[in-house]
Amino acid sequence: MEEELQSKATTMEATLRKKQQAMLDRLANRHQNRPKSTITDDSTSSSTAFSSKFSDSKRSVESQLAELPTLSDSCHLKSRLAEISSEISSLEQLVAESSYFLPSYDLRAALKSISDLKQSLEKLISELLPKKKFSFKNKSASKNVHTEPRETAKAEKSNPIITIPESPGFRNKQNEVLTKNFRGSEIGEFTISDLDSCEVRLIGSVRAAFINRLRNCKVYGGPVTGSILMEDVENCVFVLASHQIRIHCAKRCDFYVRVRSRPIIEDCGGLRFAPYCLKYDGIGDDLKEAGLDEESGNWSNVDDFKWLRAAQSPNWSVLDEGERVGSIQIEVLDNGNGKG
After folding, report:
1. CB–CB of 153/124 below 8 Å?
2. Does the keyword Chaperone apply (predicted)?
3. Which residue in 23, 81, 249, 293 could disulfide with 288, CB within 3.0 to 4.6 Å?
4. Please, what is the angle between helix 74-98 and helix 104-128, to 10°?
5. What pTM does this model have?
6. CA 63, 68, 74: angle at the middle one, nearest 5?
């Protein structure tokens, strides 16, 4: 039964990651299509509703945890442990659904509460079921952000945040300049994967972008109308505009971004952020059509999901103006096939 509990928790955590991203994408699209005048009022109302629901669920879990030591029947105990584990996962799902509109401090506080509940449950399980310790933690959770990126990527292959789709893209290239013009095309998703020392130039817009396993690259891109999901990148420069960007396992990278929602980072270190600075003929029209023509200021409002304190995360910083690259002008002379 202990093995079943452990397997269930691991499966739920992997599934939850996928569900969290899907929910965040849906929320971003929903937010994009709503009248601006309603967003502030609705966010305040939603935050209040979230706080009430989260507090009630948290108290319920705490009450059940307090009752566990009084249970003498082994079968009943294991059943209750599984139920509590499921309720904590539901709390995580609630936070994922609500992260789009929650203030940064409230989001960190909720994540900290969930972390505390997990630790309390783990402690009780180790005491009440001492033969086999049950744990929520996956291999990546114990990795320090300064671990070598390739080692980290290897450890996290079993539970990545990105499932690379079979979409058009650039893959498995080295020391090349890769260009693509999306104008006039029907490409909805674009993938950039397994590149080393390449420069990528993208003109026009797509609905979603997936960026995975890049080393020493520069990526200059027009607007993404949905989300950018990024994982396992090192020593790169990204100039990107999107309604949402989520970055996982990035090391020593500079981001020049324009984002409608707060950028999210996880298991990262040495990241620097600055405003979007890309130029090409027609970019103004592309940004306007994508709803990204106005600067939101969120480039400097980064959420580190692995940093739960109220103080500034040490894993990212604002790039000093004197070190910024300035305006970047690109052009694409041909319409590359982008199949990679």
Report:
1. no
2. yes
3. 293
4. 170
5. 0.57
6. 150
